[in-house]
What we know:
Elements: H1 3-13, E1 18-22, H2 29-42, E2 44-49, H3 57-68, E3 71-76, E4 79-83
Parallel strand pairs: 1-2
Antiparallel strand pairs: 2-4, 3-4
Amino acid sequence: MTSKQRAYLRSLAVNIDTIMQVGKDGVNQNMIKTVGDALEARELIKLKTLENCGLTPREAAEELAAGTGAEVITVIGSKFVLYRESVKNKRIELG
């Protein structure tokens, strides 16, 4: 992914709501499946790590990205954005 594509996705992420939170249980198989389903439906999602999470936002983002085949677009504070191109429901054109 090029830096221009990443910048474009970051600009899209500004306007989307946080749809999931990583809590004290951290990243588990159930969460990976849920995030994978959300990525298939939306392609670009924003998540947040709670204070009681044992992982840093970067660690949580990397684990979820590895588990779902997604890319970490940005990590700012406790929030992070993941992107994965949808197979059936392509919405975002990277060009």
